[in-house]
Write a structure and sequence with these properties.
Distance between the termini: 20 Å
Radius of gyration: 12 Å
Helix content: under 10%
Shape: globular
Number of helices: 0
Order of helices and strands: EEEEEEEEEEE
Structural class: mainly beta
């Protein structure tokens, strides 16, 4: 994946390759090379998961790579998780 990612919402899961990796999911040999991954909240936002590769992951990541120089989160009043590879 390449380019930019921008997401706005109440419960954001934002990633350079995948927003959400579900249980029993398996992502293999994949790359996220983006200039920016950005998440913004709306009033009353509950939580935010933002990562260079995946916003949230409950599955298996194998041989994945992320190069995202800017990970931006603009959400107030929410549980905020941010990571270079995976947000949470």
């Amino acid at each position: 994946a390449s380019g930019t990612v921008s997401n706005t919402g109440m419960d954001t899961r934002t990633g350079g390759f995948a927003a959400n990796g579900e249980r029993d999911g398996n992502i293999v040999k994949s790359y996220a090379i983006l200039s920016v991954v950005s998440a913004s909240g709306v009033k009353g936002s509950t939580r935010s998961y933002t990562g260079g590769f995946a916003g949230y992951n409950d599955g298996i990541l194998s041989g994945v790579y992320a190069n995202v120089p800017a990970i931006e989160v603009n959400i107030t009043g929410a549980s905020d998780f941010k990571g270079a590879l995976v947000g949470y």
